[in-house]
Every structure is written in structure tokens, then in C-alpha cells.
TrEMBL record:
This is Quaternary amine transport ATP-binding protein. GO terms for cellular component: plasma membrane. The keyword Calcium does not apply. It comes from Brevibacillus reuszeri. It is found in: Cell inner membrane. One of its GO terms (biological process) is glycine betaine transport. Transmembrane segments: none annotated. It catalyses: a quaternary ammonium(out) + ATP + H2O = a quaternary ammonium(in) + ADP + phosphate + H(+). Its main location: membrane. The complex is probably composed of two ATP-binding proteins, two transmembrane proteins and a solute-binding protein. The complex is composed of two ATP-binding proteins (OpuCA), two transmembrane proteins (OpuCB and OpuCD) and a solute-binding protein (OpuCC). GO terms for molecular function: ABC-type quaternary ammonium compound transporting activity; ATP binding; ATP hydrolysis activity.
């Protein structure tokens, strides 16, 4: 559904994304992961045209997005970022209803939607709808950020490290909720993280990036079982690889690595 065709991005003479080819399927939870500065956010922002590629083409459902109206495009792509971005002077209900209103959804319809979504993330509508963002905890605010991106029912949702600023317990709860929500809503979700545990937990497929390129793209299981090279193996971490393959805990680092990795 989202296809990158040889997409590149340079700023000045610095190459940030290098000839990226990707196919993100409809309804999958696709995780982009890699070290800081590898180009995850740039890749994501090219999907909603907050950043324009220097070369190549991105298609959504076969249509070149560079030909679309960027405002219209963004109304059909939910976007969740780490710094929440709820409007402080609007109630939770107003924040969530924002895009549905812009899209001219009828009042009765979006009111119902807002209640449904609040319920889905465990925020009792009667209690939370009329509160202001400052009256919610960080985890509660981020839940609102997530459902706000879903309120207008966009087929695609982009999430850029949405849970990174949360404490570990809230983070795990939100990961669980996202997996549960996704089972119901089945959106195409592109999720950026630098946390491999998070990626393994939530992803249908994981795309590991380094230096503006895709290093490996695979299901969590296959990544763990067959890391393509030393970079991926290091990034996943010997501990996780050992756990998956039930290799002996003793011995040298080399001896604990999977066969394909150690011979390549
Ligand atoms: N506006 C910009 N001007 C110059 N360099 C930039 C700009 N935006 C991002 N970069 C560089 O591009 C690279 C990729 O950035 P980014 O996509 O934000 O990485 P990530 O999200 O993986 O941490 C980084 O090296 C960053 O410094
Ligand atoms: Mg980033």
C-alpha cells in the first residue's frame, strides 16, 4: 500500500536517505528502527510530505503522493509524535474531535467516535472528555494523542517514537493497548522506535536502518533467528539472540551467535 521507489534525500551535499525501496502492506504494523540519526524520522516525514524526497517516488495505493494535495494527504494520515502536541486550551473531547470536524463529520457521529475511542484506551468518557490536557498524566495524554490520530479513521497512521518519553510501566501498557487496538482497527501503522524490545513486541515486520539505508526487513522472529549481518546482530543484542535460540549462556560472543551470522 505504501511503496518507496528508490527514494533518496539529501540536504546540501549530505546524503540522509540513500535509494530506499520499501513496500509497506495495508493493515500491517511496520516498525522502523535504527540508531539515532539513521534517518527514521526523515523516512516517516516523507510519507506525509512534511519532507520532500530529493529523488525517487512514494506511492500510496499506486498513486504518486507528490501529485496529491499535501493538506488533503495529511488529513488522511494520522500522526503521533513523542511531544504529544495536544492543544492545551482545548478539552480532551475537543482535541480528539479536531480532525473529524475538519473533515466535516457530523457532530453526532464524531461525538460517538470520541466516546468509543476514549473507552478503547480505558479513559472513561464521562470523566475525561471535559478535562484539559494538563489535568492528565503523561501516559493518559499520550493515549489521547494516539486516539486523536485515529479519530478521523485514516487508513494510515505514522507514529514517531510515541512512547519514548513515558515511564517504563506506562510505555508497556501503551504498547499492549496499541497491539490490542490494532487487532480491531487494522490500520497501516508505521511506527518509529529505537527500542528493540518495543519493536519485537508490537511489529508485524521490522525494518532495520543504518546510515540512511535499509539493512534488513523481516518479521521479528526471522530477524532474531537470522540477523543478516554483524550490525543487525549487534543491534538486536547477543542476549536476545541467545534467548531465542536457546544457545548456551557461556562461551565467547562468537560461539553464541547464530550460524548464518558467524559464517557470513
Ligand atoms: N534539516 C536538516 N538539516 C541537516 N541535517 C538534517 C536535517 N534533518 C535531519 N538531518 C540529519 O539527517 C540525519 C537523519 O535524521 P533523522 O531522520 O531525524 O534521524 P532519526 O529519526 O533516525 O534519529 C541525521 O544525521 C540528522 O542530523
Ligand atoms: Mg527521529
Amino acid at each position: 500500500m505504501i511503496a518507496f521507489h528508490n527514494v533518496a534525500k539529501s540536504i546540501g551535499d549530505v546524503s540522509i536517505i540513500k535509494g530506499m525501496d520499501l513496500q509497506i502492506e495495508a493493515g500491517e504494523l511496520f516498525v522502523l528502527i535504527g540508531p539515532s540519526g539513521c534517518g527514521k524520522t526523515t523516512t516517516m516525514k516523507m510519507i506525509n510530505r512534511l519532507i520532500e524526497p530529493s529523488a525517487g517516488r512514494i506511492d500510496i495505493n499506486g498513486a504518486d503522493i507528490s501529485k496529491a494535495d499535501p493538506v488533503e494527504l495529511r488529513r488522511n494520515i494520522g500522526y503521533v509524535i513523542q511531544q504529544i502536541g495536544l492543544f492545551p486550551h482545548m478539552t480532551i473531547g475537543q482535541n480528539v474531535a479536531l480532525v473529524p470536524k475538519l473533515k466535516k463529520m457530523e457532530k453526532a457521529q464524531y461525538e460517538k467516535k470520541v466516546d468509543e475511542l476514549l473507552d478503547m484506551v480505558g479513559l472513561e468518557p464521562k470523566v475525561f472528555k471535559d478535562r484539559y490536557p494538563a489535568e492528565l498524566s503523561g501516559g493518559q495524554q499520550q493515549r489521547v494523542g494516539v486516539i486523536r490520530a485515529m479519530a478521523a479513521d485514516p487508513p494510515i497512521i505514522l507514529m514517531d517514537e510515541p512512547f519514548s518519553a513515558l515511564d517504563p510501566i506506562s510505555r508497556e501498557q501503551l504498547q499492549d493497548e496499541l497491539v490490542r487496538l490494532q487487532r480491531t482497527i487494522k490500520k497501516t501503522i508505521v511506527f518509529v522506535t529505537h527500542d528493540m524490545d518495543e519493536a519485537i513486541k508490537i511489529a508485524d515486520r521490522i525494518c532495520i536502518m543504518n546510515n540512511g539505508s535499509v539493512v534488513q526487513l523481516d518479521t521479528p522472529n526471522r530477524l532474531l533467528q537470522r540477523p543478516a549481518n554483524e550490525f543487525v546482530a549487534d543491534f538486536i543484542g547477543v542476549k536476545r539472540l541467545r534467548k531465542v535460540q536457546e544457545l548456551p549462556a557461556q562461551g565467547s560472543k562468537k560461539a553464541t551467535l547464530p550460524p548464518r551470522w558467524s559464517i557470513s
